[in-house]
Amino acid sequence: MKAHDVALVGGGIVGACLAEELARRGLSVVVFDAGSEPGHATPRAAGVAVPSLRYAQDTEFYRWLQAGRGRLDADIARLEPEFGTFSVARPILRALRPADAEVLAPHVEAAETVRWIDAAEAGAAAAGLKLPAGRRLLHDDTGLMVDGRRYLAAVREACLRAGVTWRQGVTVLSVEEGGSADGSGGSGGTVELSTGDGRVRADRVVITAGAWAGGDGLAAGLPVFPQRGQLAVLTGAEQPGAILSSAFYLAPGLDGTTVVGATEEDAGFDDRCTAAGIARLLTFACAAMPSLAGAEPAGLRAGLRPATRTGHPLTGRVPGRRRVYLCAGHAGHGLLSARHTAEGFVAGMLHDAWESLPISMCPTVVMEGSPAS
Fold it and tell me: FAD dependent oxidoreductase domain: which residues (predicted)?
């Protein structure tokens, strides 16, 4: 039975970044991903890589998300010259209800790249948009679109070059902590993974399985659940000049398309597009940019975001387990924060230095109400 230092269960962008960080530190790493292609939510994401303002009052977490953008920018600068373009910078224009704008006003005043604008300025910045009446308009120069499939492909290739073993299409059925690596038992122990392709032993296991992280065979009861997001891709019409964030978002894709999304639905593990969901998106798109009424739907897709009840990812040791860790629950911030998460997680797992990750992301705090020992 082959042994590894670390086994990761899940090969989306969070798992891939974590695998690369571990391998670059000299560890033997294996990634198991059950799908026919790497990741689930990652390649289906719209790719709007900006911190959500819904967390602006949660100062520690919002600052962590902003720092994640810096690490994503560094990843783009490192990977794109070798693996091709997977991102494009675009301003983001948020149409906010007055009550939301009032809450956010102090945060806007402290930001260097964000400013309130009027309808005339908005029209100049994003021609063709028909903005909702009665909204305050917030312009941010630092909007970013990331193609999740291309980004993940680049990080996966970097993983392979760093020596990561990548087992695509292999499902992990169970994760069991056992005795020592030589089979003699003892308190040190290893973890044994039962997969659809045999058994594998690892010193430590990290569950990076996204919406499936709380599965019965992995670590049942983990508070990570699926949230369905549907989106539509339109072609044959002029793209918006900025990312519009309102009831939904309207964003220019990397390939000349326009992306409309995304719903947030509690639909279990049903990842189908529905007529009702897509109708809501297209109604919004045509109202926000009337010229899109003549656009052609080039694709409809839905994915399952890994969500948590706090809205924060969960990163750290699984309560009650010595060698099993969780790194999941990034919801709509996976592309934005994957590299930042991975760097902080590796420091915590290898050196017990978890300080760079907000305490609200600690599984023990969320599940048991106290920090891990």
Answer: 5-343
